[in-house]
Amino acid sequence: MHRVLVFAALAIGFSLAVPSLLSERSDEEKSVDLAAAERTPATSRTVRLDADRSGHFTAEFKINGRKVDGLIDTGATAVAINDTMARKLGVKLKPADFTHRVQTANGSVAVAPVLLKRIELGSIRVRDVRAVVIGDDSLAHTLIGMSFLKRLRSYRVENNTLILSL
């Protein structure tokens, strides 16, 4: 139960504290996103995920080419990974990179904004996804938040199945 509360608090914290991270985009990053969108084929790519026993949608993603188990969290503003996962994904951070703070059930924690090269789920591939890195003691699992989901054409739940389309 404590972990559920921590996840809920993280989601609330992200939704309150991280929007400014996502809106700070340089002209270079905007052109990268546009270029990626122009290369996306017109055909739709769809992935369907059944809810687990607790009603959550989890899946094996590929982030920066590495397999990662992730929990889809529409209440999280950004994708969130812990420090250990960031290192596995090739994201190199210094203590000075943890420049923002979010509020969780365990109190305020520092986060480092990062840009993930690629997130894949089945046939869905999204490049240059904004994320935050959080210390291992504050985040046990990878959360796939709105910085990924809003890049899709659509996502919806039907009959306990999450349908994601690019």
Automatic annotation (TrEMBL):
<keyword id="KW-0645">Protease</keyword>
<feature type="signal peptide">
    <location>
        <begin position="1"/>
        <end position="17"/>
    </location>
</feature>
<dbReference type="GO" id="GO:0004190">
    <property type="term" value="F:aspartic-type endopeptidase activity"/>
</dbReference>
<protein>
    <submittedName>
        <fullName>TIGR02281 family clan AA aspartic protease</fullName>
        <ecNumber>3.4.23.-</ecNumber>
    </submittedName>
</protein>
<dbReference type="InterPro" id="IPR034122">
    <property type="entry name" value="Retropepsin-like_bacterial"/>
</dbReference>
<keyword id="KW-0378">Hydrolase</keyword>
<dbReference type="Pfam" id="PF13975">
    <property type="entry name" value="gag-asp_proteas"/>
</dbReference>
<dbReference type="InterPro" id="IPR001969">
    <property type="entry name" value="Aspartic_peptidase_AS"/>
</dbReference>
<dbReference type="InterPro" id="IPR021109">
    <property type="entry name" value="Peptidase_aspartic_dom_sf"/>
</dbReference>
<dbReference type="InterPro" id="IPR011969">
    <property type="entry name" value="Clan_AA_Asp_peptidase_C"/>
</dbReference>
<keyword id="KW-0732">Signal</keyword>
<dbReference type="GO" id="GO:0006508">
    <property type="term" value="P:proteolysis"/>
</dbReference>
